[in-house]
Design goal:
By secondary structure, this protein is of the alpha/beta class. The protein has nine helices and nine strands. Helix 1 (about 15-25) packs across helix 9 (about 225-235), helix 3 runs parallel beside helix 4 and helix 4 (about 105-130) packs parallel to helix 6 (about 160-180). The radius of gyration is 18 Å and the shape is globular.
């Protein structure tokens, strides 16, 4: 696929990695629908990005809400051939901390948002994409999921987060194998330390200290670099069923 032909939905599209993906799609001449829980931020982004962008408020843990949002996006854009999953939470909590054992509900919520939410979006998007007319290479669409280096190098306090991101890694290959019958690819990106809104809230000294932990380049990743990899996934049809670490070769310490 070529970026100018993309009709995308991007969860978490109102900020951070998701917004960078939307900006890349729009700049290339494609269309994008931002799906996010933050209505004010989403509306501001669409106003800035122009007529080829749209926003719809949605909670990715709501199956009916996701289905309605995907259907609305297909209607508004005249189709759907790219789904990028950037919505998620990164809440830390020890299994046994100062306040006692981790509540089971905390673990369930992280799994529900990061893993179940991703699956709900993927299946709704795939159902829409399978109706597309295939291009010359037989392709009908692509799905990009966002994991994390925590799926492999989980730190203290990341049991829930790492489990949710490891689940995304685990479903990448079987998803790609299943959707191959429809000409739909599935790829996961596992970013390292990136300058997301959460990271930007830290003092500059803390940001610089974290960035220096990256072997090369010794800095935090830019959301635009994540978006660039999404673009490469879109344009390279041999990228399928794989999890790609985008981390400057960092391997996270235990804490």
């Amino acid at each position: 696929m070529q970026m100018q032909d993309v009709r995308a939905i991007v969860t978490g599209g109102a900020s951070g990695l998701g917004l960078a993906v939307v900006e890349n799609v729009i700049a290339a001449g494609g269309q994008a629908t931002l799906l996010d829980v933050n209505e004010a931020t989403g509306a501001d982004a669409v106003q800035r990005l122009g007529a080829r962008s749209r926003f719809r408020k949605v909670d990715v843990t709501s199956e009916s809400g996701v289905d309605e949002a995907v259907h609305a996006a297909v209607e508004a854009m005249g189709g759907l051939n790219l789904a990028v999953n950037c919505a998620g939470v990164g809440w830390p909590k020890r299994m046994v901390g100062k306040d006692g054992p981790m509540p089971g509900e905390f673990f369930r919520k992280v799994i529900e948002v990061n893993l179940v939410g991703t699956l709900l979006v993927c299946k709704a998007a795939a159902a829409a994409m399978q109706m597309n007319t295939p291009n010359a290479g037989g392709e009908r669409g692509a799905i990009v999921m966002t994991a994390s280096v925590a799926a492999f190098d989980g730190q203290v306090g990341q049991v829930a987060y790492s489990a949710s991101k490891g689940g995304i890694v685990g479903m990448t290959l079987p998803m790609a194998r299943e959707l191959a019958a429809f000409g739909i690819r599935a790829v996961t990106i596992a970013p390292g330390l990136f300058l997301t809104p959460m990271m930007a809230s830290l003092p500059v000294e803390a940001q610089e200290s974290l960035g220096k932990q990256v072997p090369f380049p010794p800095r935090l990743g830019h959301p635009s670099e994540f978006a660039l990899l999404v673009r490469q996934v879109v344009e390279n049809p041999m990228l399928n069923g794989e999890t790609i670490r985008l981390d400057g070769s960092i391997r996270m310490a235990p804490r």
